[in-house]
Amino acid sequence: MKVSKLLPLGLAALFLTSACETHPAEIKIKGPRDSVESTQANPTFATFTKKDDTLQLRASGFDDKGRYMGTALVKWDSSNREVATVSSTGLITVLSSGKANITAKYQKGEVSREASVPVEAIIVKEIKAVEPQPEAGKAIELGIGEIVNFKAAVLNDRGEAIEGAKVRWSSSSWAATVTPTGEVEARAIGTTQIVAEADNGSTARWDLAVEDWKKPGKRR
Question: Could you give the number of structural domains in the chain?
Answer without folding.
Answer: 2
